[in-house]
Amino acid sequence: PEGLRDYPVSAYADSKALIERWHGKGRLGYAITPRFALTSSEEQLAAAGRLASEYPDVWIHTHLAENKTEVEEIARQFPDRRSYLDVYDHFGLLRARSVFAHCLHIDDQDRSTLAAKGGAAAFCPSSNLFLGSGLFDLRAMRAAQVRCGLGTDVGGGTSLSLLRTASEAYKVLRLQDQALPASRALYLATLGAAEALYLDDKIGNFAVGKEADFVILDPAGSSLSKRRTDAASSIEEKMFALIMLADDRHIAATYIAGERYEF
Question: Which CA distances in Å does 177 have to 137, 170, 174, 189, 240?
Answer without folding.
Answer: 10, 10, 5, 21, 18
